[in-house]
Amino acid sequence: MIMELYPILFEPILKDRLWGGTKLKTDLGKHIPTNTTGESWELSDVDGDVSIVSNGVYSGKSLTELLNSYPAAILGNKVYEQYGAKFPLLFKFLDAHRDLSIQVHPNDALAKKRHNSFGKTEMWYVMQADEGAKIIVGFKEKSSPEEYIKHLEDKNLVEILNLVEVKAGDVFFLETGTIHAIGAGIVIAEIQQTSDITYRIYDWDRVDAQGNSRELHVEQALDAMNYNTTQTKKEYTKTANTTNVMVDCPYFTTGYLPLLGDMAVTKKGASFTVYICTDGAYTLTANQKEYNFKKGDTILIPAALQHYSLSGKATLLEIYIA
Hints:
2 domains, Jelly Rolls, single chain, mainly beta
């Protein structure tokens, strides 16, 4: 059975969150169901939240169905050998109208042992940030479980954490074990391993409409945490019509691609490619057919689609597995 090759778009999976807002609608054109929509899962193979194709001949089919039918054509032989017929990455947009909880993600070994899951290495690309908006990434200075617990109990954990002011275009790479939080007033494109394992440490003493606090995972986080300082911010070049590598790790490679005019693309078929459009609009031409995309669109290019062209004026993030 031969797969029909074209750039695949998926229905967003929208998530209401305590900290969510309306920027996924106003900035990215998503049809949000509530005024506290915090996340749009653009491409997901997480159990219970599997993406559904929204364009072309496979419209209405799930990502799981496609992977079961055409695993190597979609993933690429190398990725298929490593992960089987499972999509290894999760792509999201996040709108933090309020501060997110302070949290940490376990590594592969711990996640496998406790949850039979991948760990959660991730990166953030800041798409929009209000004046003075900040994130938390890591500790200010080398810490310890004892110091961390004491500050948590005294409700002054933030004193020992690294607060960073952010602006549009900033990139942060968070290895597993990095304590972190996205602050209010930020829209982020997030690329991560396929995992929904989060250890929530501190949630600013918030309660929901029923007066209930969200569950915390303080004990589980203790041995998942990296208590050393970490360098999370990534600098990168912005050469037009070129994939300027921002993050290169065993789980994914992400490049910054400022598209100006026309660009021919040739791939080797070893990995799928994903494009996230963070600004502008563009046309992808493949097999003599044109496909139009805009800001807020995330598309999957099957590995077997090795020759295509891009044209337009847009800012793209290009993601693949090296």
